[in-house]
Amino acid sequence: LYQCHEGYKLKIHAFVLMGNHFHLLCQTPDANLSEVMHFFLRTTALSIREQSIEKCPLWCRYKWSLISSPAHYYQVYRYIYQNPLRASLV
C-alpha cells in the first residue's frame, strides 16, 4: 500500500485484511484505480506466493464503487472496520 501511495498517489482512508479478502477505502486523484489495483494485486500475490508453501491463486478479482455522499462515505468506513468484528476475528 505504501508503494501504491508513493507511486500512484493513492490516498488510503481505510484498510482491513481479512482471512480471504481485504477492504480498501481509497481515493485516486489521477483516476488510475485500475492501474493501482493491478499493481497492488500483482505485487502482493507474488510476494505472498514466494513465502507460501501452497501455490494457489491469491486474488481473483476486485469490486469497486464510487462514494456518492458524506453519509455514504461514513457508512462504508464503518462497514470496513466492523467487518472483522462481525466475522469474530477480533
Characterization of this structure:
Strands 1-2 form a two-stranded antiparallel sheet. It has 3 helices and 2 strands, in the order H-E-E-H-H. The two termini are 23 Å apart. The protein has 90 residues and is an alpha+beta fold. Helices cover 48% and strands 14% of the residues. It has helices at 2-8, 33-51, 70-86; strands spanning 11-17, 22-27.
Keywords:
single chain; 90 residues; alpha+beta; 48% helix
Instruction: Give a count of the beta strands, DSSP E runs of length 2 or more.
Output: 2
Radius of gyration: 14 Å
Provide mean pLDDT, rounded.
89
Approximate helicity band: 40-55%
Strand order of the largest sheet: 1-2
Shape, please?
globular
The biggest beta sheet, please? 2 strands, antiparallel
The portion of residues forming beta strands comes to 5-15%
The chain-level structural class is alpha+beta
What count of helical segments does DSSP give?
A: 3
How far apart, in Å, are the first and last alpha carbons? 23 Å
The H-and-E topology, N to C, reads as: HEEHH
Low-confidence blocks of residues: none
Record the SSE blueprint:
Layout: H1 2-8, E1 11-17, E2 22-27, H2 33-51, H3 70-86
Antiparallel strand pairs: 1-2
Brief overview, please?
Helix content is 48%, strand content 14%.
